[in-house]
Design brief:
This protein is of the alpha+beta class. It has eleven helices and 19 strands.
């Protein structure tokens, strides 16, 4: 681990660029006062790993649908039709996600922990804050594995173009509108959504923001806000929560997709990828793949492993045990009603203080942005965001 001390801009500056969640509930800074230094080879390896993993996810997604494995993934029945329809039509474009990876530093192999494919956090930190930190410390901002902002802009254009080259977007765009939504009273989510709105607007779309509770839905006519119809709706609200807690909305969105009245971002099929049980499907299809950890729906035999809930977040309801089934670390949480998945345990890179670092690589058509989370053996909602820079020899 190579760490470089940096000065984090003060809270007034952070809030001035839209970053309000700079302090954790225990009053400690959320942003670390160091950055991780990586080599260009390490940056390339993270990029290649995320691209290869996404191809594997796409192939495994087809396998899940062909073999009707939704129950194995814990997918609620009332969202399955939406998943199938969004999967079968290319216009339901996956805008972005984030791979959580172990390893990649000091010669340690990269291993997939999970894929936050639907509502990944740390978008603002990765795409905006890292640049600001390097600039504020008189470092070259471009020395990062981080073109996330630009990649998202291009991926918005692919909603229309459906191809790699987006140079002709202006000739194809015909006034389509995107409505962006988050829940009320959550500054982090609202700022993240408004960042995406800004990127889409810069890409050339007509955009609007509305809280989810103010949006209107019609199975026959589509999605509306203040009487205006929107062809696209981006919601920072997990598909599993829609299916479990908002069954009427799940039904309406399924009907809207079926009637081709709107495109929902991220698409419903990202719920397959979001389920941690998907790692078991990957292991079945690609046993002993160098990027994967052995994963099962039953406890593994004779190896250290992590038990986590298929739709758990922020390390909640996670248990780490050694090869003798002795508990090393555990966290309580609110996801206990979900089934468990058991994944081979792998140590994360650590610094001289023994704190662990997990790489997060954003994917928007390709790998496009790296950031790190730092914390204990289980990374919870008190983990810190750590930026990075690429150091060339």
């Amino acid at each position: 681990m190579k760490l470089q001390p940096i000065k984090v801009p003060d809270n007034k500056f952070l809030e001035g660029i839209g970053f309000f969640w700079h302090t954790d509930p225990d009053s400690t800074p959320y942003v670390a006062s160091e950055i991780v230094e990586i080599s260009s080879d390490e940056a390339d390896a993270y990029y290649e790993a995320s691209n290869e993993l996404y191809e594997m996810f796409a192939e495994a997604g087809e396998y899940v649908i062909e073999n009707d494995l939704f129950h194995e993934l814990g997918i609620p029945f009332n969202i399955i039709d939406a998943i199938k329809m969004s999967w079968d039509n290319d216009i339901h474009w996956h805008l972005y996600g984030r791979f959580d990876l172990a390893g990649g530093l000091d010669g340690k192999p990269i291993k997939l922990i999970e894929f936050n494919a639907d509502t990944p956090t740390a978008l603002f930190e990765t795409s905006i804050l890292q640049w600001a930190i390097l600039k504020a410390n008189n470092m070259e901002e471009s020395h990062q594995f981080n073109n996330l902002y630009e990649a998202l802009g291009d991926n918005f254009k692919r909603l229309i173009m459906m191809e790699d080259d987006v140079a002709g977007f202006a000739d194809h765009y015909d006034g389509w509108k995107i409505l962006f939504s988050s829940v009320k009273d959550n500054e982090e989510e609202e700022s993240t959504v408004k960042l995406l709105q800004t990127i889409a607007k810069e890409a050339g779309f007509n955009t609007e923001f509305a809280y989810i509770e103010d949006v209107e839905f019609s199975a026959e006519d589509g999605i509306f806000y203040k009487g205006k119809n929107y062809e696209y709706w981006f919601k920072l609200y997990p598909w599993e929560d829609i299916a479990i807690e908002e069954s009427d909305l799940a039904m309406l969105l399924t009907q809207i997709i079926e009637n081709q009245k709107a495109i929902i971002l991220n698409p419903a099929y990202t719920l397959m990828f979001q389920s941690k049980a998907f790692m078991k499907i990957l292991w079945d299809l690609y046993p002993n793949h160098p990027l994967l950890l052995e994963t099962s729906l039953e406890p593994l035999k004779g190896i250290a492993q992590v038990e986590k809930k298929i739709f758990g977040r922020e390390g909640a309801n996670t248990i780490i045990v050694d090869k003798n089934e002795k508990v090393i670390e555990e966290r309580d949480g609110e996801y206990g009603e979900f089934p468990s998945v058991f994944q081979e345990y792998v140590e994360l890179p650590t610094d001289s203080k023994g704190e662990s670092y997990q790489a997060g690589v954003f994917f928007a058509y390709e790998g496009c942005g790296l950031g790190f989370r730092r914390g204990g053996l289980i990374l919870d909602n008190y983990s810190k965001f750590v930026g990075h820079r690429v150091v060339t020899k």
